Every structure is written in C-alpha cells, then in structure tokens.
Structures
1.
Amino acid sequence: MKPRVKEVIVVEGRYDRNALLQVVDATVVETGGFSVFNDREKLAFLRRLAEKRGLILLTDPDGAGFVIRNYLKGAIPRQQVKQAYVPDIAGKERRKRHPGKEGKLGVEGMRPEVLLEALRRCGATLEGEDAPAPGGDLTKADMMDKGLVGPKSAARRQQVLRDLGLPEHLTANGLLEALNLLLTREEFEKL
C-alpha cells in the first residue's frame, strides 16, 4: 500500500505527476512548466491549497526547475511550503531521445525509493509514519564557521551538496534550510 501524503505536491509536468502517483497516494498538481508564470488562476489555486493543506515543491534538479521553485517560493507564504529535493543524477528519461540540457534526470526519471526519501527528508506528513523531527537551529553564522558561506566557499558548499545528495543549484539559503531538515547540530559539527 502506498503511503498517503497530507500536503499537496507541486511538480513541473504530467510525467513527474505520473511517477509520483505510482509511489504515494497524494494530490499532485502540475505547474505546466514555465506557463505558471503567466497563469494567475493557477497561482491563486496553489495559494489556496497551500493555506488549506500546505505544499511540497518537488521540481527537477536543473536550472529550469529551480527557476520555477524560486518563483513559487516567493509567491506563497514560506510557512506553507516545504522543499523536497531529488539528487543530481546524470542520465535521460526513457521516453526521451536525448538528455536534457544539463544531462540530469528529472523527477520522472527517479526511482520510487528516491522520490519517497525526498518526501520524507522535506518533512512531508506521511500517514502511518512518525512525524518528522522539528527543524534544526543552524544559522548562517554556523555555515560561515564551516566555510560554507563567504569568500571561497562555493567548492566546499558543492561538496556538501554532493555528500547529502542535494542538487547543485541549491543556494546557500536553500542549503541552510536543507541542513536544518536533514541534520542535527551534532551531525552538522561532524561535517
């Protein structure tokens, strides 16, 4: 039996939606890719869903996915949105002749266990599973102490993203949010 997800999951397109519905019992809404930028009705609908049930943004780990994710992140109240990330995995989806511009698998190309883990890691409310631990208390100052922000931090930050299976396009703020979801302070100190 598939786990039921309380929040509404937002993906880019129908193939992403189909892949997710094979893994979880959830309401999954497509943005229609970049068309969400000009679709006021879709944005109003997403805002209503976020207010009622909360949203989980699950976009592809490429540049286009992060443009859509950041647009929605800015348009919907922060406390109503959870960020789910799939790792950077090179390859192409079976239905496509050629890989995408960045050569990475999108949501539709991920194995079911990867999608389920992405949902768990973001703090999705999965029926029948224990609720996730509350977010950590890490700050930008903690990241600076570890050399993850500030001068010459990009390479170090990229290594942490790889080690944690997070997409390379994650900003420093996005990494901080992910670290607070994924690690305890003790685990962070061991980085």
Note: The first strand starts at residue 8 and ends at 11.
2.
Amino acid sequence: MGICDQRTVIITGAGGGLGRAYALALAAESARVVVNDIRQEAAQAVVDEITRLGGKAVANADDITTLDGARRIVAQAIEQFGEVHALVNNAGNLRDRMFVNLSEEDWDEVVRVHLRGHFCLANTLARHWRDKAKAGETVDARLINTSSGAGLQGSIAQSNYATAKAGICALTLVQAAELGRYGITSNAIAPAARTSMTEGAMPDVVKKPADGSFDFWDPANVAPLVVWLASPLSRHVSGRVFEASGGKISIADGWRTGPVQDKGARWLPEELGPVVDALIARGVAPQKVYGT
C-alpha cells in the first residue's frame, strides 16, 4: 500500500511531461488516477502504462475550460472509482510574444486555459466536497494548482502566461482561506522540468545529460511533492506555493509589506521622490526576471 491508497486523483494535461510523471508516481503510491488530456491517445497511452504496472487509471479527454466538461470529468471519476479526493490542475499552454506584439487572441487563449481551466474543475469539486461536508461526511480533499517561476518573478515575452500563473497563486490563497472549513486544502507548485513547453522555449537548458549524471530537469523529480500533497499526510498544509526542480524544494514567500515611511499626514506630491528612493534603498532588491 502506498501513501495514496484508496484515493482518486484527477490530473489535467496528464498525457505527457509533468502530468504523466505525476500520474505514474501517484499510481505507484496506490492512487486511482483519472488521466485527463485533450489528446485522447496520449491520455490512453499513460493509462495503458499505469495498468501494465498494476495500477488503476482511466483516460478522459473532456474540456477543462468549461463547467460542462468539468462536470463530465468528475462524473466519470466517481462512476469509475466511487469518489474524488484530489485534483492536480496541471494543463497549460504558451503563446509567447513580447508584450507590444501580443494579440487579443494570444492573451485570451493563455488566460482561458490556465485561469479558467483552474477554475472549472476546482469549482465543480469544491461544490461536491462542500455538500458532503455539510451532510456530515468527513472530507479530506486536495486542490493542487500549478503556477510557475514566471508567475512569481515575471518573464520576458510571457506577459500573458506570467499574469495567469500569478493569478493562480492568488486563487490558491483564496481557496485555502474559504475551503478549509470543509476539509479541503489548496496549495500550488511552481515546477521547473523538461516538458514540451520548456523544450520549445529553452531546449539547450533542459536537455537530458549525456553522461548519465543526475537528470535535474526530469519531470519525475517534481512528482514526489505532488504525491505528498495529494495524500492524507499533507492535511495540515494549505495556502502555500512550493517551488520544485531537480532535488530542490522551497516555499515562495509571495508579496510582503516592506519598509514603511509614515508622515502622520497626507504627503505632498513633490515630497515623494526622496521618500520613494529611501524606501527602495531600505528594501529588498528586485528578483531577477525568470529565465534571464
């Protein structure tokens, strides 16, 4: 028995990359996995891989960006496995452009997949779990969202993606604050690994080492954190954003109030230049932009 025995986990975008690694790792820890991907064949290939290894999984290709699609995913999971205990919101896309070159479609498509995609399934499941809790049943449920270093630090040519990923961090905080009373935790991860997206953006950086040394960018390196977050062992942790890559795990602090200058009265506009300069000098240096 693994640490996710008898738990059902839905993973979006699980036909490859990080999602596939999560699915395999969760199944290895006895979870029953719903492998969602818009590419039906890719989802089925991961399911076949899991079942060959003795695990339990089912493929799903419904649209995560509509409530109807989300309801079908949840209904299939419950019909197949009886209940859902965790959701890993992993699916994503890229339409990288410098900000002045972004089209309305570039913006909307990335925000739709990341932010609306995170909303629909989580909202559907949160309602389901809330109703169970109000009916007196014990709920021990998990929302695991996916942000990015781009969402934490900004990223050149990724204003649409970075904005969506930053929004996911804020969504995670609100979910944690609102849903804890129902037995639901919400955390986010900002993973760095070799995926189709990173191979397209920075192929030389994420390539597998030819000498057989530790493969820092292997998606499987991030999977143990996701497994732990989906398990009963993590019930005391909520509202956190984890960064994970290679063998490294950290918790992002997020925005914090820095030094304060209080005049005790309303400032005059002409007074503020030296004040702002002094606050910047006393504060923390800005973080490096992600990927530069």
Note: The chain has a mean pLDDT of 94.
